[in-house]
Write a structure and sequence with these properties.
alpha+beta, 7-stranded mixed beta sheet, 5-stranded mixed beta sheet, 26% strand, globular
Length: 488
């Protein structure tokens, strides 16, 4: 079992071994922005691929999508982001540092999407006894105010035809905007899901803990459309599916839990919401959200249907979103273009949506934390990452015991053959024990050594990372042995 370590150990390992670097480091770095190095991008890609395999490829009721980051501004008006996607902040009068009110008044919680600023202001606690995290001043804050989290940008080369739009704060709205396209171009029928993995951007007031909360991040989201009345069944289904995914990839069950949102914590569109939380090594060990599973009802499709009907207002206002008021036509909304005709019972309705929404970056961090371990072997400390084979950046490393007698040529040939099937590494530098340690720290499940006996009988030594057990395997059986062990 991996030990619960300090976040500093993870950050140090990531920098030292090329998992994650500070962005623009040669210029002093850019806060809350990170670059994935050679090992890190392989790990993150494996996390994405494992999510896609479980959510899309292994199911017959889910299809994929890849939507544009830039979308029509009316998308964000209809979804509520243009008006309500905000954090409540207060500014320290002494040092002018802005802080999220919920971070000052309560234990740090994940950002609540689509928070209503007026409701948040009513619920905000008195700040008279709150401490500024920057200068330590007590109770010296401005009145709470709403801070919109979307990054604004503009499209168009000429001043006259420029249009203000936004970097998307979530991938979900692109799925809702393409609901009709997917229905019309595929053979899917409700119930079915649309999945997407992609970058999102939020101008967070407070970033936190390495790659846990950043302003640029990657989401893996599924919008599962179902008939009203069956939504609670599908909600429970996806809760269990997503929880089991983390366990199947090696997350320690003792560090994983569900946390249901309280009624006054729910986003205004949600009928129910639960977080899958992981016990991260922040402070003394804090439970933090890995993923949210929400019952979004028919809110999003209904809102976009209203948005389509009021699009002319946007043109007439010269692109001013504040001038657009979505028409409330609830009596007829189920008859619009984003509704679904169910030929099984001859009914038409707007589907309800169950949304599992995971952060790829924070999932990657959780897998790093959970895999990290230290142990003493023959009087020396061994650092290792006990990754599930599906997530390991490098699946096998191949070594010649010495750089002579043709051993490097044999080892290179083995590496070239195995690389057709999974990521491999060749290493001939240093003592064999040091090479083992380097691969242990990178999380490589198997090391293969070409030695003197290889020259005699064609067998190699295969050493397993976690147990350090070794086997002699014939070269012609090596691929089959590794594929069975790696389950690839």
């Amino acid at each position: 079992m991996a030990k619960l370590t300090k976040l500093d150990d993870i950050v140090s390992l990531c920098k030292r071994r090329g998992f994650i670097f500070q962005s623009s480091e040669i210029y002093g770095g850019l806060a809350s922005c990170y670059d994935y190095g050679p090992l890190g991008i392989e790990l993150k890609r494996n996390v994405r691929d494992s999510w896609w395999k479980a959510t899309v490829r292994m199911r017959n009721d889910v299809v994929g999508l890849d939507c544009s980051i830039l979308m029509h501004p009316m998308v964000w008006k209809a979804s509520g982001h243009a008006d309500k996607f905000a954090d409540l902040i207060a500014e320290c009068r002494k040092c002018n540092t802005r802080s999220r009110v919920d971070h000052l008044t309560a234990e740090d919680q994940e950002h609540t999407e689509h928070i209503d600023p007026e409701l948040a202001a009513e619920k905000s606690q008195n700040l008279s006894d709150k401490v500024c995290p920057s200068c330590g001043a007590v109770g010296d804050f401005t009145e709470p105010m709403a801070f919109n989290l979307m990054f604004e940008t503009s499209m168009g080369a000429n001043i006259g035809d420029q249009m203000k739009t936004f970097l998307r704060p979530e991938t979900a709205q692109g799925i809702f905007a393409n609901f009709r396209n997917v229905l019309d171009s595929t053979r899917v029928k409700v119930p079915f899901g649309i999945a997407q993995i992609g970058k999102s951007f939020r101008n967070e007031v407070t970033t936190k803990a390495f790659i846990f909360r950043t302003r640029e991040f990657e989401q893996a989201e599924l919008e599962f459309f179902c008939k009203p009345g069956t939504d609670e069944q599908w909600y429970e289904h996806w809760k269990q599916q997503r929880y089991d995914w983390y366990l199947a990839l090696g997350i320690n069950k003792d560090r994983l839990r569900f946390r249901d949102h309280d009624p006054d914590e729910l986003a205004h569109y949600a009928k129910a919401c639960v977080d899958i939380e992981y016990k991260f090594p922040f402070g003394q060990g804090d439970w933090q959200e890995l993923e949210g599973i929400a019952n979004r009802t028919d809110y999003d499709l209904r809102q976009h249907q209203r948005g389509m009907r009021t699009l002319n207002q946007w043109y007439e206002s010269g692109g001013d979103l504040s001038e657009v008021n979505l028409k409330d036509e609830d009596d007829n909304y189920h008859k619009g273009p984003l509704s679904f005709f169910d030929d099984q019972d001859n009914s038409r309705y707007i589907p309800y949506v169950i949304e599992p929404s995971a952060g790829v970056d924070r999932s990657t961090l959780a897998f790093l934390v959970d895999a990290y371990d230290e142990e003493e072997v023959r009087g020396e400390k061994r650092n290792l990452l006990r990754f599930h084979p599906a997530l390991a950046p490098i699946k096998a490393a191949i070594f010649p015991l010495v750089k002579k007698e043709g051993m490097p040529d044999i080892a290179n040939n083995i590496c070239n053959d195995l690389q057709k099937y999974f990521a491999c590494s060749y290493d001939e530098k240093g003592a064999i024990g040091r090479r083992y340690r380097r691969q242990d720290e990178a999380g490589t499940p198997f090391c293969i050594t070409v030695d003197g006996q290889t020259l005699e009988d064609g067998t190699v030594t295969v050493r397993e990372r976690d147990s350090m057990e070794q086997w002699r395997i014939s070269q012609d059986k090596l691929l089959g042995f590794l594929r069975e062990k790696l389950e690839v």
